[in-house]
Amino acid sequence: MTVPGRRRTPTRRRTAVALPVLAVLAVLLAGCTSIVAGEAAPVAGGRETVDQIRQRIDLGSLDPCDMVSPAQRAARNLGDAEPLKDSASLPACQWLGKGRSADSDRITFRLNDSVRDRAGDTGARVTDILGFYAIELPSTTYHACNLLVDVAEKQTLQVTHLADADPSGDACTSGRDFTESALRTLTRISRR
């Protein structure tokens, strides 16, 4: 004989078990986020906001050739760093593709420059990269993209990505990957 009253269904039991499991999973995944403006996020082993990172970055004291590690170069099939000395206020470094790759990447530190001033440029796409305010400027004449990242007050990290001439690809998408790697390196070395 069964006891009168509500009987627990298998669906209720599964829900009762699933909710705590989902809550624990959500907490664990929250620690795996990227940099988000104004929110704490793990970057190179720490938990900082973009604003905290921006306060300690000084591009004038860094070498743009240090922004890409040998592992990052190998992953993109890029050669060794080649320093460029265009001007004192625009220290730059470039990496050319090895072998059959026509890809190349250049990092320029634009001192006394504001990314936000470029938002009105023709074709500019305002975005964020790892939580940093950024602008993508795709080229209209060849398969390239300039990515300008506001890393500190009046300090811009500019990545110029020239991609293989594959019309189906977006140079800004592949350049963004390189820019993310450079930003991770920048946040790590700016702690020193």
UniProtKB/TrEMBL annotation:
<dbReference type="InterPro" id="IPR024520">
    <property type="entry name" value="DUF3558"/>
</dbReference>
<protein>
    <recommendedName>
        <fullName>DUF3558 domain-containing protein</fullName>
    </recommendedName>
</protein>
<dbReference type="Pfam" id="PF12079">
    <property type="entry name" value="DUF3558"/>
</dbReference>
